Structures are given as structure tokens and as C-alpha cells.
Amino acid sequence: MAQAAAYGIHTIVGTPVAGITAGTVEQVLVRVQEIAALRAEPGATPPTSPAGEIRAQDEDTERAGGPLGGTTVVVSGAMTGPLEKRSRNQMNELTEQAGGRSSSSVSRKTALVVAGDGAGSKRAKAEQLGVRLATPDKFAIIIAGCLNRPAA
What we know:
The chain is an alpha/beta fold. It is 44% helix and 10% strand. The chain has a four-stranded parallel β-sheet with strand order 2-1-3-4, sandwiched between helices. The relative contact order is 0.14.
């Protein structure tokens, strides 16, 4: 991470980010790694440039696979934050726009459960099966590029 910090945050994400200082670069990189862990498939490696620095995927690649990259997602409970006004159907559409597959039940094939307020038995089953859980706020960060994109 020290090597990435030396390049500066604008090199990592491709454009300057307001409010990011050298002191917060490490925090941002930790957060990016948490999000990447939700997206990663077994054996996947993050993209690197020839110099070995972290680089963002280009927009066309992001659209093709999306940030969810074919993973199965179950949305349960009441959404909060930027997703608060979204219906279940809209959440499923967002999941699909982000490259994921929507499901209404949790199984071993489920990769992520977005657990809002009152997620109940779906959250419990996800915990029992070891399925990753994300809050609506974390999910909004993962699919941020799809939130303002018109439906396909």
C-alpha cells in the first residue's frame, strides 16, 4: 500500500478526488480492498499496469461484466441510504445492470446478500451458509456506477 500511496490517489483512480489527502489514502485503499473482496472470484487477481500500480477498469470493461461480474445476489429487508426509495424490482434491475443475477432465495449458489433492516431469515440463512453480507450502503458503493445509469 505504501507504493500506491507514493503514486498519489489520482494515479490510482485516474482522476483527482476532492477531499482525499495523503493521510486518507491508506483508508481509501483499505475500503477499495473490502469492496474488491465482495467482487472477487476464486483465483482472480486485480488488474495491474506494467509498472505494477493499481488501475481502474476502463468503462467498457466495467459495463460488459459489471461490478458484480455474474454473481448471484439476494436483496432482503428495507433498503436505507441511497437505495432507500428503491422497490424490490428496482433493486433486482440494479443488480442485473451491475452484471449480477438476482435471486429471491439464499442458497449455496448465492454470492452476496444485501441485508437491509428486517432481513430476518434470509440474513440468518446467509450467515449459516457463509454467504457474504453487505449493508445497503456498501452495496450502493459497489454498484455506484449503475445508480444513475438508465435501465437497459
